Each structure stands twice: as structure tokens, then as C-alpha cells.
Amino acid sequence: MKLNPTLRSLLVAGTCWLGVIGTAGAWTLEEAAKPYAGTTVDVVFLLRPGYEAAEAMLPEFEEKTGIKINIIKHPYENALGEQVRDFVANGDLDIALIDLVWIGNFAENDWLLPISEFTSNPELADPDLDIDDFFPLVLNAFGGWNGEVYGLPFDNYSGLLFYNECMLKDAGFDGPPGTWSELKDTYGPALTKDGKYAFALQSKRNETQSADSFARVLWPFGGSFLDDDFKSNLMSAESQAGLKFRQDLMQYMPEGIVAYDHAEAVNALAQGDVAMLTEWSAFYSTLKSPDTSKVADCLKIAPEPSGPAGRKPALGGFSLAVAAQADEKERAASWLFIQWVTSKANALEYLERGGVPARQSVYEQDGVAEKYDFVPALVESWQDGVPEFRPRFAEWPEITEIVQEWGSKIMLGEVSTEEGAEELGKRMEAVLEEAGYYSGEKPLAQ
């Protein structure tokens, strides 16, 4: 992946500057935090393994700094709305948790501060920050907007194929499917029997429908939400092929799959009710633990299958950014926490506790790929993934609701793929027209 030239120059400059101050030595988290001891920082966390991992690490940070991290927990479905309400009301939130499709909305509303405000301050900038150690794809997708870096990658995902090796072997397969067509045409009939199903595609009517279901079948088949002119591309032959494929694949999924969120889909695999699942890397610890999974000993991981357009795995995740509404002390304390929790020094512990760091160096350490068998597929996807798996612009929160509605109607058979795509495209274009994309008021690329 090639970084935006402006973003690349910023990162290079920041890295060089950090190298200069690094030679001065003496910087420590304890010293940097002394002026902010007693400060409380409010941050939103989700109910997912990566956040539990960070929470377990918090006592060390609070002991070293005297800074209190107040965690506000939300299910994913509520996290965007709760944060938006807080920012509009100029509330108490000090650190924003940003999905890669929220960053345009947050940045364009001036709710975030760029990291340059802190990396340019030698009293706050850790000389070992090493921006270049983050996977460029992940840093740009989750934290970058219009040439600025606002957030550091925190809870980072790639779509992977989790599968029950024992079920596949019993059905006569010596490995997972390499293509989506193979999954449907060969594995589907053989594994769907006796109340068991070949596959689960979490598709609940929320962002799960948009990102984990709808988008997942567009890219591998050569489709996309939009064309280069920001007009709907959902009626293209490639997009229609992906959406029709999803309809055909449903016969090998559990009944009621349109109501499955991550928890239900992961549990279906963990209980041995489905043989395969495309799911975010963040759920590895849940599926691999004997405490939460009956199939832990049979669990294997592979890259997502390839489609006619190649292997196009899902991309998802979050960054942490300092909120502009925070006061001076809260801003500094927030940055120190973000810098610490995403640091190279803490990446291995975060991984061991169930998180998925975006640091390249942690996956290069001896034994990591062998101990965590999702790592090779994860690294491959972040090196060769699709940066725009979902459109990254400020209007996505409004558009995703349209995708959720009509994507669900298509799956339920209430409309055909053509009817649903046509209506979805019209409504999507209406949002973009009102935002000024077709009149020249807004650029067609971010």
C-alpha cells in the first residue's frame, strides 16, 4: 500500500524528529506524567477481548503516572452515538475511540486533535514512539485523515477464516477452502447436515450487516460501494455477482443468520454448530480458549477465501485519539495513555492478554507466529489488504444505515439483489449529493 504523500511526509518528519530527541535520553513516562498526576481521563471501551486486555494492563500505567483512566463501556452498536452526543454537548470524553469509518466524521467536525500537537512537544513525546513500526495500511486507515494522523491504532482487526479442522476432516477435507466458490459448492453441501452448518456470516442489521456481511462479498468479486466518481457501483456485474453469491450461500448457514451478530456467530463455531466462520482476528482468544470454546483443540485459522478479484480480506479496527474538548491537562494525560497502551514495549503483553496490536515488530519476535497461529494470515492481510474496505468519509454513519436496511431486505428475500442495490444506490447518492460531492463542494477522495 502507498501512503498519501502528505501523510508520508508527516510521518517521516515525525520519525526523524523523534530520533533527534531520542538521542538526548532522559525521557521517562514517570517524569512526563508528574504535572498531570491526579488527572482523570475518560475513554470509551467496547465489550471485546482487546479492551479487556488493555484494562488488565491499566494498573501499571496508573501506578507509574498517577493518572486515572475512567473507562466507559459500550457495546459496539452504541459507541458511535454515545460519543457523538458527548462531543455535540461538549461533554466529558477525553479520548475518542474511532472506527475506521468514523474518522472522517470526527475529524471534519474538529472533535479530534492531530498527534502532531503532542509529538512536537519533547516533554510528552516518547522517543520510542516509532510511528513507522505500525503497519502503514492500519495506521492510515484507522488514524489518518486528509494528510493528518489523529489516532494511533489500538484494537485492530483483519478478517480471517476460522474453521473446525475436526469437522472438515470428518467430511473428507484435508484443509480449508481456498476460494469462496469452493466453500459454497464443495464444502457447503458436505458440511451442512444433521443440524450442523458449513458456514456462518454474521449479518445483523447494524454495522455488522454493512461491514461483516455486505462489504465482505463485494470486494472479492470485484465489486464496490462506489465508483471513482462516487456514484453507486452496486448495479455492476461484479457487485451483483457478490450479492447473489451471498444469497446462494445462505442455504449452508444457520436459519436466522440475518439476526446473528458477532457473539452469536462466534458462539456457533465455538459450540460446534458451524464448521467455518469469517470473523475478525480480535475473537481469536475467545475461540481458542477451552473456557469459552468446545472446539479449541480443533480450531485452525486461514486467510479469507479468494474470489474472482483475488483475496480481499475484510479490514476493521479502531484508533484512540485525543478529544479537542478536553482541557490542557486532560489532553496531555490522554496522549500519555494512548502512547503507552499502543507502544512497542507493551505490544507483546497486549497480545498475550488477548489484544491484537498493530505493531510490526511484535509479530517478528521469535515464537510469536507459532504460539498465535492467526498471526501469519493476519500479517498477510495487513500487507496486502484493501484500504477502502468500506468508504472512509464523513457521511458513512448515515450511509451505513441505508446499507443495513436494504442489505437485510436482500438477505431476507424481501427484494431481489437488483431491486435492493438500485434503491440502496439511489439513497446513497442522495446523501452524497446533499453533502456536495457532485457539485464540486467536496473532493472525491480523502
What characteristic shape results from the CA principal axes? globular
* SS content category: alpha+beta
Strand content: 5-15%
List the total number of helices.
Answer: 20
Rg value: 22 Å
Domain count, please report it.
2
Could you spell the SSE succession in H and E letters?
HHEHEHEHHHEEEHHEHHHEHEEHHHHHHH
Your description of this structure?
The chain is of the alpha+beta class. The protein has 2 domains: 5-150 and 316-384, D-Maltodextrin-Binding Protein, domain 2, CATH 3.40.190; 157-314 and 391-446, D-Maltodextrin-Binding Protein, domain 2, CATH 3.40.190.10. Helix content is 45%, strand content 13%. It has helices spanning 5-22, 29-33, 49-65, 76-88, 103-108, 116-119, 136-143, 165-170, 180-191, 207-214, 237-249, 262-270, 284-288, 328-341, 344-352, 360-363, 368-371, 375-384, 396-411, 417-435; strands at residues 40-46, 68-74, 95-99, 144-145, 148-149, 152-164, 197-200, 274-280, 299-303, 315-322. Strands 3, 6, 7, 8, 9 and 10 form a 6-stranded mixed sheet that branches. Strands 1-2 form a two-stranded parallel ribbon. Strands 4-5 form a two-stranded antiparallel sheet. A hairpin with a 2-residue loop joins β4 (144-145) and β5 (148-149). α19 runs antiparallel to α20. The longest helix has 19 residues, at 417-435. The protein is globular, with a radius of gyration of 22 Å. The model is unreliable at 1-24 (pLDDT under 50).
Question: Which labels suit this protein?
Answer:
446 residues; alpha+beta; D-Maltodextrin-Binding Protein, domain 2; 2 domains; six-stranded mixed sheet; disordered N terminus
